[in-house]
Amino acid sequence: MTSLALFSLLYFAVSVLTLTDSSLSSITTAASPAASKCTLLNRFQPDFVVQGNYVIGGIFPIHFSLKLRDLNGTYRPPPINCNAHKFNPRVFRWAQTMRLAVEEINQNPVLLPNHTLGYRIFDSCAHPLTGQRAVLSMLNGVSEGNSSMCTNASSILAVIGASGSAESIVVSRILQTFRIPMISYASSCACLSDRQKYPTFFRVIPSDDYQVKAIAQLLVHLNWTWVGLLRGDHDYGRFAAKGLLRELQDTKVCVAYQEIIPLLYTRQMGLRIMKVMRSSTAKVVVVFLGDLLMTPFMRDYMTQNITGIQWVASEALVMSSVLSGKEYYPYMGGTIGFGIRKGHIPTLGDFLQTVNPKRYPDNVLVHELWESLYGCSPLPSSVTQMPPCSGQESLLEQHSAYMNTSSPSITYNVYKAVYAIAHSLHKLLLCQPGRGPFQNNSCAQSNNIHPWQLQHYLQEVNFQIGDEEVDFDAKGDSVPYYDIINWQRGKEGNIEFVNVGLFNGTKAVGEELLIQEDRIMWAGHQSEVPVSVCSASCLPGSRKAVRRGEPICCFDCVPCDSGKISNQTNSVDCATCPEDFWSNKDRTACISKKVEYLTFDSLGIALTVMSVVGACFTLAVCGVFFCYRHTAIVRVNNSELSFFILFALTLCFLCCLLFIGKPTYWSCMLRHTAFSITFSLCISCILGKTLVVLAAFTATRPGHNIMKWLGPKQQRTIISSCTLVQVVICAAWLIDSPPFPSRNTQYEHSKIILECSVGSSLAFWCVLGYIGLQACLCFVLAFLARKLPGNFNEAKFITFSMLIFCAVWLAFIPAYISSPGNYTDAVESFAILTSSFGLLFCLFAPKSYIILLKPEKNTKQHLMGKEKK
Known about the structure:
Layout: H1 3-14, H2 22-31, E1 48-50, E2 54-60, E3 63-64, E4 86-87, H3 89-107, E5 117-123, H4 128-140, E6 156-160, H5 165-175, E7 182-184, E8 201-203, H6 208-221, E9 226-232, H7 235-247, E10 254-261, H8 267-279, E11 284-288, H9 291-303, E12 310-313, H10 315-318, H11 329-332, E13 336-340, H12 348-353, H13 364-374, H14 400-403, H15 409-429, H16 451-460, E14 462-465, E15 468-471, E16 481-489, E17 495-504, E18 513-515, E19 542-546, E20 555-559, E21 564-565, E22 575-576, E23 581-583, E24 590-592, E25 594-596, H17 602-627, H18 632-636, H19 639-655, H20 665-698, H21 712-736, E26 740-744, E27 751-757, H22 761-784, H23 794-818, H24 823-853, H25 860-864
Parallel strand pairs: 2-5, 2-6, 6-7, 7-8, 9-10, 9-11, 11-12, 12-13, 25-27
Antiparallel strand pairs: 1-5, 3-4, 13-16, 14-15, 16-17, 17-18, 19-20, 21-22, 23-24, 26-27
Helix pairs in contact: 1-4, 1-5, 3-15, 4-5, 6-7, 8-9, 15-16, 17-19, 17-24, 19-20, 19-24, 20-21, 20-22, 21-22, 22-23, 23-24
C-alpha cells in the first residue's frame, strides 16, 4: 500500500464521525431499537444529480488549490471547502461531457432501450481526502430515504473518476470493498495496473508504462542523451520516474539529476531545484507532474529569468490550460510532450452553450463558471463583490478553457468511459437465462444488479466509437495512443497546443513513434532541435572513454591507436585493421600497408655503386697484377694466391647485389650462401698466403725445411679444404631449413617488410662463426710473422687487414640484430662491402703503389732487404 493511500484510509478512520459510513449507520441502528433506517451524520451534496434506472457516479477536480494543507496527523483536520479553491473551467467541461453522454444514451433507442442512466457528480477539489469524502457520500445516497446501503445492493453501479492517480488510489481502495468498478479518465500511474491491489480499476487513458516508453523513444530519436527529471512527490511521479529510468537503461540517455517538487511546495524548495537546473549542462527536462504543482513552481521560475530549457511534459501537464497564458510562453514555449489522443464529440459545443446561470439558477458551479469566464456574477451584488451580469452572455471561442472542443483529449476519455459502462450494461441486460456467465449459468437480475456483475461485462466490453476501438486488457488498461503535442505561440501571444505526431502502442517495436520535426517550434522560439549532451560527440577516428564515477553519457574522446579505426560517430571501441592493412592518418579507414624492402632507391643505388666500384677496383688490380705478373713483387707474393684472392673479392663485391631488390625464394638462398662461400674462399686464400709467408721466412733458419710441405699443391689443398667446410655447412643449411622470403609485420606494424628469413638461425651463425674462425686464425698467424725481416713483409698488411675485417664483423652483429626492417639487409651489405674494401686496400694497395708509382723498388733485392747501400 502506498503511503498516500495508507494515510488517506487512516484519515478516513479518524474522521468517520464527520464523514459517514454504512457500518456506523448499522451500529446506530443496533444501538437504538426504535431506529428503522440508516441515519446520515453529515451530508456532502453532489453538484449534479439525475435519477435513472441505473445510477453511475462521477468525480471531477472542478476546484483546485495552489496550497495544500499540512496534514501531519497531530490534530483533527478541518473540512475542505471546495468553493474556497480556484475554479477550473476545463474540468467543469469534463463533468458536462459526462452529463451529455448520459443524455445521448438515454435518447438512444438502440443502446439500453427502455432503461435510463442516472448520475451523481461530485467535486473532489483535486485532493485525495475530498475525493474520499465524495465517494463515501456517493455510496450513501443523497438522503436516508433513498439510501440502499443498509439493506440492498449499491445504488451506484460504477464510478467515472478520479483524475489524479493519488485520488484514484484512495477511491479505488474504498470501492473495491464493495466490488464497484471505476473507470478513470486521467489516472495513468503504472501502479494502478496491479490487479491484486486494484481489482476493480479500469481506465481509458494509457498506463504510464506506455508513456515512459514513448518519452524514452522521443529522447533517443532526438539524440537528447543528457536530461534532467522533475517529478511530483506522489505515486504518479514516483512510478513514472521509475519507469522512465527502467526504459533508459538500455539506451544512451542518462539522467543528469532527479528533483522532486513536494506536495507542500515552498519557494525555498523551488529555488533549490532551480539552482540545480541552472548549474546543470542538461538543457532538456522531463516533467512528471500536473499543473497543480507546476503552477507555483513556474511562478518562482519566471522570477529567476531562467531560459533555454526544453521541457518534455507528460500527459498530466502537456494539455494544461492553466499554463497557456502568454506570460508563460518565454519560459515554456516549445514544450513537447505526449497528450491523450484527441477525439471529436459533435454535439459537445452546442451542449456547453446550454449551460448558463439562467437555466441553472441554483447551481453554484455554473455561477462560478460565469465568474471565471466573464469576471462578473449573476448573483445579486449583496452576495458577491463582482460586477453583476445577466447570466445569458454568449460563450465565445476566446473562452477556450471551457469551450475548446477541437481537441478534447480528457473530455473524450470521459465520453468513452460513460459509453463503456453503457455498452457493458446493455450486454448484461441482454443475457438469456441459462446462458449467463455467473453461477449455474445465471444472469443478473435487471432490478437488482450488483456492481461486480457489471464488472464482468466491463472486462469483456468491445465497441467502436468514432474511428476508435474501445476495450480493456486483463489489467484494465486501454489501447495506448498518444498525440505528440508542441506548445507554440498563438496569434494573441498565448500558448497553443499543436499536434506534431503520434505514438501508436499497437505498432511493432521501433515503429510506434511518428513525429513531424519540421512542424515543431523548440524552446527559445528556435526551429532547430536543441542539443542536450554531457559530452560532445566523438568524431570518427576516436572512441568514447567513460569518465570514472560518472554516467556513461559523460565521456572523453580518445584517438584510436595506430592500426585501429572508427568510421562512426560516438564509437565505443576502435576496430583493428586486417593484417595487411593499417589505419590512415585520421584513423577513419584501413589502407593497405606500405610494402618495404631494399630497393634501388637512394640507399640501394649507393650500395649498388659501391658494389660495382669495388668489383671494378678489384678487376683493375687484377689487371695490373696480370700485366706485371713477371715482376718481383708479384712473384714474391705468390701470384696464384693473389689471383685467387682477387677473384674471391670480386665475387664478394658482386654478391651484395643479391641483397638489393624484392626477396625471392632463389635470391634468399643465394645471398647468404654466396656471401659465406666467397668470403670463406677469400679468407682461405689469405690463410694460405699467411702460412706461406710464415713458412718462407722460417725456412731461412738452419734445420728448417718447412717449404716442402707448403708447395703449390698443398696450398690448393688447404684452400679447397677450408672452403669445402663452408660449402658443407651451407649445403646442410639449404637442405634442412633454407632461407626463404617472409613478410615481417611485427617490427613496424604500419608496414610490411619483405625480407629473407634465415630459416635456421643456428646455420646462419655457424656460417658467420666459421668465417670469423678463419679470420682469427689468419690474424694470429700474421701477427706472429709481423717482425720477420724484409722491406716488404706482407704479414703486417695481412694483420692489419684481418684487424679491419674482424672489427667490421664484430660491429656488424649488434647492428644487424638491432637494425629495423629493410635496413637489416643494408647493414649486411655494408659490412660485406666494408670488409671487402678493407681486404682489397690493405692487401693490394701497397703492392699496386710500388708497381705503378715506385717501380725502382719492384726488385727482389729491395724486397728481401739486400739492396746495396
